[in-house]
Amino acid sequence: MRPARENPFRVDRITALGYQPIEATWAELLDHLEAMHFCGAVVGPCGSGKTTLLDTLAGHLTQRGLRVARLFFSVDVRPPRPEVTAVLEQPFDVLLLDGADHLGLLAWRRIKNAVLRRDRGLVITAHRPGRLPTWATCRTDAALLCRLVEWLLSADGPRAPACPDRAVLEGLYRRHNGNIREALRRLYDIMADGPDTSAVGPRP
């Protein structure tokens, strides 16, 4: 059994890796967002990196001297209205709203209007386009999973376990229907059981 602190696929290491844009640099993405007056949507399927993109974006915005506020909604997480109101009343320049799909129309309009009428920025994540102009689209493929695995393992240098064969990772990607987050969680479980990542297969 490998200790959690030595698992190359642990959450803190994946978080530290941040979002790795493929089709543009971070400088280009930030310039585009600024041209959109910091108002846009990150669109993509489950597990494609939308939340990771927001996390990384928060750091870049802070480095630019902008104040960032956060709200998170999901199937299981629905902040009560007083909590949402408290966030909206904070002094901030850009609100990062993760999970806009999980807001009803009235709740969405209330948040959107509260932000935009004060001339503040609003960046959301959504599975489908429509609520705000699309700023970035998160896409996944097996090659992306392979690159992430290589980056995560290379951080351990010579002590790193062998990287699974590309065919193994492609099979893992297909089994999880392109959900990179779930594929990495499966690799975490495999690594926790032992060092042999070549044995990646369906969960028993």
Annotation, overall tally of beta strands:
5
- Look at the structure and give the mean pLDDT: 89
Oligomer: single chain
CATH class of the largest domain: Alpha Beta
Q: Report on the biggest sheet.
A: 5 strands, parallel
Order of neighbouring strands in the sheet with most strands: 2-3-4-1-5
In terms of DSSP E residues, the strand content is: 5-15%
Order of helices and strands: HHEHEHEHEEHHH
What structural category characterises the helix and strand content?
alpha/beta
Number of domains: 2
How big is the Rg?
Answer: 19 Å
Distance between the first and last residues' Cα:
17 Å
Q: Assign the CATH topology of the largest domain.
A: Rossmann fold
Please name the CATH architecture of the largest domain.
Answer: 3-Layer(aba) Sandwich
Give the overall shape, derived from the CA principal axes. Answer: elongated
Count the DSSP helices: 8
Percent of residues in helical segments?
A: 40-55%
* CATH homologous superfamily designation of the largest domain: P-loop containing nucleotide triphosphate hydrolases
Q: Could you name the ranges where pLDDT drops below 50 across 5 or more consecutive residues? A: 197-204
